[in-house]
Write a structure and sequence with these properties.
With about 110 residues, the chain is an all-alpha fold. Helices cover about 55% and strands about 0% of the residues.
Length: about 110
Amino acid sequence: MYLIAIAWGYVALMMALAEATSSQGSILGAVITFVLYGLLPISIVLYVLGSPARKAARKKQEQMQAQIDFPQEPTEAMPLDPLARTAAPASEQADDRHHAAGPGVMPVGKEP
């Protein structure tokens, strides 16, 4: 992104230099050429292209501020001591791993 902006600025600078050294040109014309053909368009393009990065930085800052303002309360799943190794109680409900819940069902026609 910056490579194009630098090249654009170089071309605008060369245009301004040509305007200033021309026999019919002037320094004021060179300054106006550099500002209107160089600085103004480059600044607009860099502002527009930098918008997603600014949005991401703002969102990250808001998330960090929210963590500072409202820290999460420790729950059963998240103990106070992160190194504590406690066994979770066994659940009889099915989980998201597509396994049967509990001990399972006996096949039909089989004696226990």
